[in-house]
Design a protein that fits this description.
Order of helices and strands: HEHEEEHHHHHHHH
CATH architecture of the largest domain: Up-down Bundle
Distance between the termini: 83 Å
Largest sheet: 4 strands, mixed
CATH topology of the largest domain: Glutathione S-transferase Yfyf (Class Pi), Chain A, domain 2
CATH class of the largest domain: Mainly Alpha
Radius of gyration: 23 Å
Helix content: 40-55%
Structural class: alpha+beta
Number of domains: 2
Number of helices: 10
Shape: globular
Strand order of the largest sheet: 2-1-3-4
Number of strands: 4
Oligomer: single chain
Amino acid sequence: MTIDLRSLLFSLLTLSISNVASAMTMQQQSQSSLRLHVYDHCPFCIRVELALGLKQSPYERIVYGYGDKLGDESKQGCYDGGNPILTGKKELPVLEKIGPDGNREWLKAESLDIIEWAQTEQSDRFPAKSGREDLTAFFATDGRFKVLQRILSRPRNLKMTQLKDWAREEDRAYAKNKYEKGGWDYAAAEACDGESQVEMNKLLEDASTLLGSDTSFYEDGALGFDDLLYLPELRAVTVAKGVKWPDRLRNYVVSAHSKANVGTYFDQQVE
């Protein structure tokens, strides 16, 4: 009996490739993927990105223009970005789970709910929110830090046209109309930009003293729930060129975001 060695080798190679392909297909079918729908400038979106990144949960990041109505027909002055409808509301972040068949399995649409889900997927949880009154007061919605953060970031955000958030004129127009309807004044913010920077410099010095360690708001240095809540607020200020950051605070902000593979605006600041 004569054996064609070349044919035998080819058959074995084909069988091997077939087995590998079959194994890969089975592995892919046993996995699901995550899609995180966000605005790049949104603190609520960033807190979720930090949580997923720190928990090493891989996800596909999908960024939207701020003027995209996201299927919400009640929003005026918005455009249809041609994207699949998520919740039907103009609200982000939204976490979407895609099943092995490529179809959507579920959506989660609140940042804290998404973070809680991310924790349940892991054996360890983030250190709990401390409830520290000094942090709550400093980052309060009507506190001086937030007031100055808006003054310094909102006009600059509209110049960040390299970001999907602000790439279209309609994105910038929507943001301006939205905030001006609420009584916010872009011209007044730009007029007091210099003095706002000086005051923010002092506030960032104060923020540096609030750190519990060089790497977090906790004394043990672990990144926890306080960091998820307040890092995105500090990140918003990184867009402002001219603001002076204490080394300790800047290193903390850069390091924490880097650990989660989330960018800041230090490398693309606006004057």
